[in-house]
């Protein structure tokens, strides 16, 4: 599925999910993404309007839809990392490059690539390719 999100929106979704349960607020998002607070505010408003995130008492959470997007981004990212590292690209370089496109990939293409790579269980960094 394609989600029509921007790179900054992708980075925000990943930051919210990867906050390890730490409740994020607007100023945290601005710091993590290295953007100004007004820019972070506009980003959060866009993600809210797309029903990807919600705010409760100033704390920002992914919605179930947002968690689905996160899972697909991560699967795309890790599958593409496997492909690049199998082609001889250093795992850190692969990660840097894949961040630029992982959110643009459609699920059908990633599933086909995943199968063609032999259903890899982990990415080059040892993380599961498929998230639960």
Automatic annotation (TrEMBL):
Iron dependent repressor metal binding and dimerisation domain boundaries: 63-128
Pfam family of the protein (one): Fe_dep_repr_C
Coiled coil feature spans: none
SMART domains for this protein: HTH_DTXR (SM00529)
MF annotations from Gene Ontology: DNA-binding transcription factor activity; protein dimerization activity; transition metal ion binding
PANTHER family assigned to the protein according to its UniProt record, in alphabetical order: IRON (METAL) DEPENDENT REPRESSOR, DTXR FAMILY, IRON-DEPENDENT TRANSCRIPTIONAL REGULATOR
Record's protein name: Iron-dependent repressor
Organism: Ferroplasma acidiphilum
